[in-house]
Amino acid sequence: MEMSMEMKENSTIHLAPVVQDDAQRGSSEVAMRLNDVSVAFSGKTVVRGATFDVRKGAVTAMIGPSGSGKTTLLRALNRLHDLTPGAEVKGQILLGQDDVYGGGIPTPILRARVGMVFQRPNPFPTMSIADNVTSGLRFNGVKDKKKLEEAIEASLWAAALWDSVKDRLKAPASTLSGGEQQRLCIARALAVEPDVLLMDEPTSSLDPISTQRIEDLMQDLKKIVTIVIVTHNMQQAARVSDDCAFLLMAEDRAGELIEFAPTAKIFNDPQDSRTLDYIQGRFG
Amino acid sequence: MTTMTSNMPETDSRLDLQQLMRQKYRRRVIVGNIILAFVMAALVVALIPLLSIVISVIDRGSKVLSTAFLTQVQQDPFAFDPYAIGGVWNAIVGSLVMDGIAIGAAIPLGIFSGVILSDAKGKIGTTIHRIFDVMIGLPSILFGLFVFFVLLGPVFNNAYSGMAGVIALTLMSIPLIAVATESAISAVPPTLNEAGLALGALPSRVMWNIKLPAARPAILTGVLLALSRAVGETAPVLFVIGQSREANWNPAAEQSSLPTLTFQYLQGFFPSQREAAWGIALILMTVVFLVNLTSRIISARSQRG
User: Fold this and answer.
1) Which of A79, A126, A196 is the best substitution to test chain B (most B C-beta atoms within 10 A)?
2) How far is Cα A74 from Cα A185, in angstroms, rounded to an integer?
3) pLDDT tens track for B268-301
4) Under an 8 A CB cutoff, do B305 and A135 touch?
5) Domain identity same for B40 and B126
6) Any residues with CB less than 8 A from the CB of A242 and at least 6 apart, and which?
7) What is the pTM of this model?
8) Domain that residue B231 falls in
9) ipTM of this model?
10) How far is B40 from chain A (nearest CA, A)?
């Protein structure tokens, strides 16, 4: 009965996904602060002037059409775009009090504190399930057996994978299904106990059921880690995120931050007409 | 359906087109069969000499092969006993010792070079890569020439030594293993590299714990390829190892090897020596076949896992 009531309530035609506005989601503490961040590759600007705060314990989504620089901006947060020759970042990114690009923190240490989950599941193929989970700790010099053992159970538990793999921890990671592999990658990222977890379209290669499991998981995860997610899928952003950054490609093909606001506001009452056009599906 | 047909051509023209295609079909089949016949003929032309080599090696080699041939050392036949050729144990030992040490030395040197190659971008990396490519293409006798003229005097006191052969074979194997390692590492998906770095690992850690293990089957294939080449090489060792008639487990002593003994026997005065060359050829062919089979099994197993 309650279900049908709810459905009736929501049955008014919304072009944009409906977002319930339960105002205070996440804390007001800042996990990462972006201050006029621009990213260029070999002198060509790809993202320009992004300024927003990633709130601690919240899920922040970056949405926008292809080429708007969402993934580039995400990869600037853990300096992974350093791998691309000619990459350059201007502006300031703070992780807590540490200046990410101002020499405030060595890059490997930064990356251990800002974990990442990729578009396609990429467990280490030569390692077992357990070794995948502990890999980050071992790479960072943790050798204590007890600590590693604890991390296996805790991380797999947090990634909602413990029950299905606890009897085959020594099996190769490749024996898992795609959705399980992605949750293993989440467990692997969680094992080093990061402050922030970056997710780059984490469900784009998964089926709808695996996608839903990861989305559900994110709601539990944000109790222990701040999440920044890039997604192509507006409905996903509406479902999982608390804050939302909308990026769009400007005339010179550089991505710009058009609007940053709580997700409910972005989807129900956007301030910029371009945001409205995008969430109503007029382009992108 | 109705919306479809509105854009389709009139029925008559469609029938014409179908008629045309039916006529052309016969021609297409005939042309296809002619091309196939040419390809098959080329295959037969290529296979006949290959098969005849294999068959004659097996046929004539198996007549020579015996336990004595495998376990006795070489003897020189003489006029009163033209069949007293002994065996090839000295050459087997020489090949085992020299190929073993050469590959053993070339594995770390080649793999480390390959690791550095895969990381070295820009001019220096490309230059080293080119040098290795050229070295792989060099006629193997040049390695023998280098050791003979440059090293045999100052390093080996102008005495024949198995170690001189080892150096020639090692120099020849390093670029093979290095280039195999480099391409194996490059074939590791970049997302694994990113995953490792994103956990806070140093690039050297990612190389050692992620990229090299993932590349291992392909590297092993390269090592086995280098091994099967080293086993069969005559030219690099011919001038520098001497012609030992004794089985020497000491690599620094004068040595013999299966390919050089074949060379020696082909020039032999007695027919029994020339027949013995077939026996050695069969041993070499079997060894190379087994090495190749092993590398096949390794790469097949890695693809399944």
Assistant:
1) A126
2) 17
3) 888 888 888 999 999 999 999 999 999 888 888 8
4) no
5) no
6) A25, A26, A55, A58, A59, A60, A222, A262, A263
7) 0.82
8) 89-304
9) 0.88
10) 41
